[in-house]
Amino acid sequence: MTILGVETSCDETAAAVVRDGREVLSSIVYSQVALHQPYGGVVPEIASRSHVEKMPGVMTQAMEAAGISWPAIDAIAVTYGPGLASSLVVGLAAAKGLALRLGKPLIGINHIEAHLFSVFLSPEAPPPEEACPLLGLVVSGGHSMLVDTPQLGCYRIIGQTLDDAAGEAFDKAAQLLGLGYPGGPAIDRAARQATLRSDLVFPQGRVRAGHHLMAGALRPELCVSFSGLKTALMYHLRTHPVTGPEEVNAIAASYQEAIVSALVDRCDRALRGSHYRCLAVGGGVSLNARLRVRLQELAERRHVRLLLAQPKYCGDNAAMIAGLAGAGHGVRGAAAMALDVSPSLALDALAP
Ligand code: KG4
Ligand code: ZN
To answer: Which of the residue ranges 46-50, 56-60, 79-83, 348-352 would you say has the lowest mean pLDDT?
Structure first.
C-alpha cells in the first residue's frame, strides 16, 4: 500500500508518501511559525488561510520527492482531529477532493494516535506487534498523556495533564522570560547554557487523589497539572527581577527540569511492576534534549526499550498519518467520506 498522507491540524501544512506503513518515500512540512511569531502563538484564521495557500504545492512536492505518479497512490490518509477546526477542515476537504478525483479510498486518522505511531517510522524500531504491550507518552503543544497500549489501535488513557499541555507550559514560560515563540526550543537552548541551581526549584504539578477531573481509567498519581508551574514562575519573576541572560538561562533550566521530572516521574510510576515491553514517546516536546536523556535513564532502570520518534517526526508531520493508515488503522470506507472534522477527538474513543 502506497499512501499519501495529509496533515493540517494546527500550524504545519504537511504531506507525505509512505509505503506499507513504515517506508517513508517523502515527507514535506511547511511550518507557519514565522507567520504566528509576531502574535506569540497560533492565530487560527492565519493558520487556516495559509493551509489553503500552501496545501496544493506541499502535496505536489511530496509526490515529486517520492518519485511516484498519482495513479500509483493506493489511498489518501488525513487527520480529522483533534486540532483547530479551521485548520483541520482545509486538509480534510483537500483529501476528500483528491480521493474523489483519483477514485481512491480515503482514510481518517486520529492525530494523537499518529504521534504514538511516529516511533515506528524509525527503521530500527521493532514491528508494533513486537513492541506491544507498550506505554505511550504523547507530549505536544496541545496534549500530554500516558497511554496504556496492549496493541496498536487499542488505547486507555491512564494519565494526563489536567490543564496546560507540556508544550504549552514551555511556550508560556518562554513568553514570560522574553525568549520568544515557540518556547520549547528556546527554553531547551537556554537551559543548555546553565547548570541546575538548588535554590531555584519549581513545582512538579502533583495531583491529589479524588480530584474532580479524575474519570475513566485515569490514575491520579499518573496525572499532572502544569498551570501552577507557570504561576510559580510568574511570582518568582515578580519577586526576583531578572538580572541578565545568565539568570534567564538558570531559570529556564530549573523550569525545564520541573516539567521533565514530572513527566519522567509519571512514566516511572506507570512502568513500576508493569508488563510493558517498550516506552514509546512522540510529540513536539519529545524533541527536548533533557527529556530524551532522562527517559533513556528511566528505560534502562525499568528494563524497557525506549522508542523515540526521529526528530523530523516528533513535531507535526504527515508521514505519521500515512504510516498509521498503511499499518491498517483509521476510519475507512463510506464512514471516512462521511467524516467531519473533530476538534476534540479523544483517543479512548478508539478502544474496542
Ligand atoms: O507536536 P507539536 O509539533 O504540535 C502539536 O501537536 O501541538 O508540538 C509543538 C510543541 C510546542 O509547544 C513547542 O514549544 C514544543 O512542542 N517543543 C518543545 C521542543 N521543540 C518543540 N518543547 C520542549 N523542548 C523542545 N526542544
Ligand atoms: Zn501534534
So the answer is: 348-352
Which residue intervals of the chain are DSSP H helices? 33-36, 44-66, 85-102, 111-117, 128-131, 166-176, 183-192, 227-239, 245-271, 289-302, 319-326, 334-337
Q: Do domains 2-116+315-350 and 126-308 have the same CATH topology?
A: yes
Closest protein CA for atom 10 of ligand 1: 141
Bridge partners (DSSP) listed for residue 81: 110
Every domain of the chain and the residues it spans: 2-116+315-350, 126-308
Ligand 2 center from residue 274 Cα (angstroms) = 27
What distance in angstroms lies between residue 257's CA and the mean position of ligand 2's atoms?
22
* Span 51-68, average pLDDT: 97
Q: Which residue from 8, 12, 285 has its CB within 8 A of the most atoms of ligand 1, so it is best to mutate?
A: 285
- Tell me how far the alpha carbon of residue 91 lies from the centroid of ligand 2, in angstroms: 14
Q: Give the pLDDT of residue 207.
A: 87
- Which residues are near ligand 1 (CB < 6 Å)? 10, 140-142, 167, 170-171, 182-185, 188, 283-285, 287-288, 315-316
pLDDT at 210: 77
Residues 187-225: tens digit of each pLDDT: 999 999 999 999 999 988 888 877 877 888 899 999 999
Ligand 1 centroid from CA 171, angstroms? 8
Query: Whole-angstrom Cα distance, residue 30 to residue 14?
Result: 6
Which one of the ligands is nearest to 33 CA?
A: 1
Place of cell 502544569: 226
Determine whether domain 2-116+315-350 maps to CATH 3.90.1750.10. no
Domain 126-308 belongs in CATH node 2.30.30.240: no
Question: pLDDT tens across 256-311, in order?
Answer: 999 999 999 999 999 999 999 999 999 999 999 999 999 999 999 999 999 999 99
Cβ(135)–Cβ(146) under 8 Å? yes
